[in-house]
Structure formats: structure tokens, C-alpha cells
Amino acid sequence: AKRFGILTAGGDCPGLNAVIRGAVLKGETVYGQEFVGFRDGWYGLVYGDIIDLDRSVVRGLSNQGGTILGTSRFGPYSEPDGGPENIKKVLKNLGIDGVIAIGGEGTAAASKRLLEDGIPIVGVPKTIDNDINATDYTFGFNTAVEIATEAIDRLRTTGNSHKRCMVLEVMGRHAGWIALHSGIAGGAHAILIPEQPESINQICAWVTSVKNRGRAPMVVVAEGFKLPEMAEAHSTKGLDGFNRPRLGGIAEVLAPMIEERTGIEARATVLGHIQRGGVPTAFDRVLATRLGMATADLVADKKWGHMVALRGTDIVRTTFDEALADPKQVPLDQYQEIRVIFG
Ligand code: F6P
Predict the structure, then answer these.
(1) Which positions in this protein are listed as binding substrate (predicted)?
(2) Residues 12, 40, 129, 284: which is the catalytic one?
């Protein structure tokens, strides 16, 4: 039987386990394939650290958040033991015929390089941010939007009681999809995204007009949003070398500025990793399961260098190259469409 190794790399995301389950169930049932999981992303591939995956291991996994395999931001080339020659040896020793890498942009870039270095590899796009080019939606996004929307609903009742301006920061370094969708769903009075700088004067004008109607202003801001006057200096490198958008969190910068300029009391909430943890929504479970199943087809057909993706309502095949074309940001006309009702 053909044997494939699955890894999950980069930030975790609700639905990862459903992808693993979908691939293993279809692969075993339809093609007689065998699977192992690499522990902690590329680390498990570089060091041959694996667990067996079969029907009994993936039972009941579709509603479990996180990843049973573990993940890391470790790269396949970054350690002295990394690199294609070592990885080829690991695959040969373990009798593995191909790699399935579930991850975001960084994972796709590493996968493409490994492919060019002769490693048989396919991909599954993953991010709660929904900013991968080749797919209409990524799994995990819908879950994050649900959680952010619930946070807005909850902030609204406390905001209204105290007549305060509530500023909610959601994830999204390069794209404002979570902010846009949760902001629309939760009826925010202003939505601030990385794609479109807005001045503090404009933000305060929206806040004041809401307050003048006797309502508590609700501002939703993506972590990557910048005021036009803000410098890049706010970005900072983490312990793992990963670039964090900024130190304090943009909501904590905005709330005092709003308070000072409008005289309206303001409070900041940073939603953080709550929006990435826990049970995936039914939408994300369905999407992730379908992507996992389509991945079993991909490796059966030896479509190395390809990725599975969602186009409209269909699961299709795309490539690492396409996924790595510019990140999928919120089109400005989509933002303008909703911006007219801010304030
Ligand atoms: O890419 C997913 C994401 O959750 C981003 O929205 C966020 O900027 C980043 O990961 C946070 O990374 P970490 O979990 O490593 O702090």
C-alpha cells in the first residue's frame, strides 16, 4: 500500500483535525492508502518523529479544535538537520511515498521549495485569516468570525449599559476579513482593516455621531490596521522569529485616543487566541472534511505540487504557485460598500 505522511504547520486553526480525518477515512476506504502523522509540523518530518494514523485514531475528530499532530513555526530548511537530502532519507527509511502539508503561506512557500528539491508533496491551505489567494474560503475563518461576532454581541450589552465606546481587536495581520465579516454580522459602527488606513479624526467622527444618537459606539479593528500616522516600528519579532504585528495591540492604542479626543469613555478588548481555539463550526467541519478527502485523491493521482481549494461550492485543485501569488486582501470596493453606513 502507498503510505503518506501528514503534517500541520504554522498557527493552529479549527478544522485541522477534520482535514486529517477526511484524508485518512477516504484514503483507507477508497484507495487502501496508509497514513502517518509528523509531530509538530516540519519538525516531525526533519527528525522522523511520527505517529500512526488510521481509522481508529481519527474517530470523532471532526469536532475537535487544534491539531492532534501538534504544530510549530519550525521551517524544513532552518535547522542544520533540515533540508531536502535529510528529508529524502527520512521518507525512505519510514517508507513514506509523499507528504501532505496543511498550512498557510509560509508552509506553501516551504512546500514549493521542497517540491523543487525533489520531495513529493501536496498542500492544504489553512488560516483563520482567510487571506490565501487560491481558495474562496479557508477553514477556521468561519469559526473565528462566529466567535468574534459573539464577542461583539456581548460587548454591546456592557457598552450600552455604561454608554461607552467599545473597541474590539480581532486577528488579521495582512487582511481584514475577520474584522469585516464579524463587524458586519455584529452591526459595528466602524470596521478598521489593514487594507484601508482611516484617520483618527474620521474614527472619532463616526464614534461621536453614534454617541449623539444615544448609542454606545462599537469599533472593530483588525490587528494589522494602522493609522496613517503610525510607523512600521510597531512590528516586533517573537521568540520563534515570527513577526508580530505590534507590541500593545492596536485596540489599546485606539481606545485612549478616542476617549481623549471625543470625551467618550472607551474600553479596549483584544480577542486574541480565543478566536483560534475550540470547536469548529459546522461550515468549517464540512469544508475541512471535503478538503481532506480531496487530498486523498490528490496523492492517489500523484499530483505533487498541487493543493486542494474551494472555488464557489466546489473543491478544486490548484498549485503552490497560485496560493503564493499576492495574499487575498479585502477588495476596497467591498469595504466601501459597508463603510457608507459607518457612524
Ligand atoms: O495567521 C493566523 C494568526 O492567528 C494571525 O491572525 C495572527 O497574527 C497570528 O496567527 C498570531 O500568531 P501566534 O499564534 O504565533 O501568536
Answers:
(1) 127-129, 164, 171-173, 223, 267, 273-276
(2) 129
